[in-house]
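Same chain as my last thread, 477 residues:
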Amino acid sequence: MSLPKTSIHGEWSSRLAFILAATGSAVGLGNIWKFPYMTGEYGGGAFVIVYLLCIALIGLPIMMAEVMLGKRGRSSPINTMQALAQETGRSQIWQLLGWSGVIAGFLILSFYSVIAGWALAYVPRLASGMFTVVSDLPTANAVADFVDTQFNALVGDPLRLLAWHTAFIIVTITMVAGGVQGGLERAVRWMMPALFILLLVLVGYAMSTPKFMDGVHFMFNIDFDKLLYSKGEFRYDGILAAMGQAFFSLSLGMGSIMVYGAYLPKQASIAQTTTAVVVADTLVAILAGLIIFPIVFSNGLQPDAGVGLVFKTLPIAFGQMPFGSFFGTVFFVLLALAAWSSAISLIEPAVAWLVETGKFTRLSATIGCGLAAWLVGLATVFSFNIWSDIKPLSQFASFEDKTLFDLIDYLTTNIMLPLGGLFIAIFVAWIMKRQIVSDEFKSSPNRLGFQVWYFLLRYLTPLGIGLVFLNTIGVFS
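reply #2:
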C-alpha cells in the first residue's frame, strides 16, 4: 500500500511549532512534579546521572525513531504501525505496538489529570494569599507543618479532587477538539517560553536560600550506594525507575511523539528537532530540582516526601518571597498549562485513530476519549482518600504498599513505556530497511552521525532495556 504524504489531521505550521508542541508534550508534570520526588526517593545524584545516561543513550535514539515512524506513516500510531508493517512485508502483529502506545497514554492521562488538578487547586490558594501567613510562623518546622496540612486536606477530600480532575479534563477536551493548528499548536506557542522564564526566576530565588549548595550537592553528588542499596539489600529498582522516568519525561512509548511526528512538515530535520526537544526537556527537569531541593533543605523537609513534594515546598517559597502570591499564582497557572500541553498529546493518539475509522468526528472522538479517561481517573482520585487502604496486589512483596494509582503509575512508567520503546527500536533498526530509515532522516547511511544513532538503536538501547527487564522479572535474583 502507498503511504500518505500528509496527515488528514493537518500539519504543524513550522519546525518551531513542532519543537514547541513536542517540548510541551515532554515538559510538564513529569519534569516539575515527578523528577524531583523520584530523585529524592532514590538518593539524589546517582539517580540523576543514571537518568541523564538513559536520556542520552536510550531516550534520544528512541525519540528520533518514534518521530521517524510517525513522519513515515502520517497517521495515528495504530494505523502507522499497520501501514509500516505492510510496507516491510511483516506481520500485522506489529500493530499491537501502536495499540500499546495509545493505551499507555490513555492510562497515564487518567492519573495525570488528577495530579494536574492539584496544580489547578493551588491557583486560588496562592492568589488569595493563603501561604503568605507562613512568614508569621515562628519556626521553619511550623511553616512546613502548615503547608503539609493544607496539602493533606486537599488530597484527603475526594469531592474536591473530583472537581479539579473534571475541570482539567474539560479544558483538555476543548483544546484537542480545535485540531492541530487551531488547538494543539495555539495552546503551546506561548506557554512554554513563559514557563522557562518563570523557572529561571525561581532558580534565582532558590540561590538566595541558606541551603542552596546543599540542594546542589544532593542533586549532583554521586553515591551509588543510595541508588543500589535499600536496608542493606542490593536492588535494581532505582535504575528501572530512572529509565522509566526518562520515558515518562520524554513522552516515549505512549504514542504522543509518534502522532506528533505524523504532523511534522516533510522538510523538517528529525535529528535537529528531536535533539532540541530533549535538551529543553532535560533542562527543565534539572531546573526544577535546583528550585525544589534548596527549599526542601532550607525548611527542614525531607527530600523523599513522595508525590506531594512540589506541593509541600514551593508554597513555602512563595509565602516568603516578595510578591510571592503573584509569582505563586502565575507558577501554578503555568504548571497547569504545561500539564495541559502534555495531556493533549496523551489523548491525541486515541482521538486520531477514532477519527481515522471514519465513524467519529474530531469533536465526538475527543469527548468520548476524555470521558473514558475521566472515568478511569476516579481510581486515582479515590486512591488518596477513601480507597487508600485498597492494595490489590498486597500479597506480592513488591506491590504490598501500592494503591490503584501506584499500580497504574508502575504499569505504565516502568513496564509499558520501556517495552514500547524496546519494540520501537527493534522495528526501526531490525525490521525496516536501512535505506528507508536514512531517507526519512535525509541522511546518507554512511554518515557518522547516522551510524552512531543506528548503532545505539540497534544494539545498546535494546540491550540496556532488556537487561533491566530481565532483572525486573527475577532472572538475576
